[in-house]
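lol forgot to send this yesterday, sorry. struct tokens for the thing we talked abt
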């Protein structure tokens, strides 16, 4: 199944790239959001459009919402407390309150979504090697300089331009 998806994605690279430029993320109900709409959605939920949430909604869309349909019973495990759990709660039916979002704070900016019946899923995280191509993004993410020295506008531009290209995606299978 993985090879089929990979081959499909490779042969359809141009339409997917064009589509990704039209929207930044989408939710489990099928609503698509442009980058600007995503910033408003994030700010309404979180209080402000933080860089972590901007990349988080991209991660959630790529990890869960492009792999599971609305009828698939999926859960999420988040490996950080910072921002990423909010991205899950904004775009999916998984929340801390309903027990479908669990947080195991391991200090990693990563999320796993899995089918509750089969255990099959996907884990998405930031790829440090790919992130090196985006200096401000890298420095902010790995805190190599004080936050006050980060150029916020450049950071947000780099997050937007990098999109899913800085993400690492692994198919997983849990024992359920």
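and heres what i got for the seq, position by position
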């Amino acid at each position: 199944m993985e090879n089929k998806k990979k081959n499909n994605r490779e042969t359809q690279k141009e339409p997917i790239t064009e589509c990704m430029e039209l929207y930044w993320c989408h939710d489990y109900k099928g609503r698509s959001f442009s980058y600007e709409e995503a910033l408003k959605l994030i700010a309404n939920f979180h209080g402000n459009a933080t860089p972590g949430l901007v990349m988080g909604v991209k991660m959630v869309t790529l990890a869960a919402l492009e792999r599971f349909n609305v009828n698939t019973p999926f859960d999420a495990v988040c490996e950080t407390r910072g921002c990423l759990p909010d991205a899950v709660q904004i775009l999916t039916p998984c929340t801390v309150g309903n027990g479908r979002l669990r947080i195991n704070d391991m200090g990693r900016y990563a999320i796993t979504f899995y089918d509750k019946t089969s255990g099959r899923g996907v884990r998405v995280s930031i790829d440090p090697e790919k992130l090196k191509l985006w200096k401000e993004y890298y420095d902010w993410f790995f805190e190599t300089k004080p936050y006050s020295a980060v150029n916020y506008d450049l950071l947000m531009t780099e997050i937007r331009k990098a999109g899913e290209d800085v993400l690492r995606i692994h198919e997983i299978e849990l024992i359920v």
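The chain has one domain: 2-173. anyway ping me if u want another try
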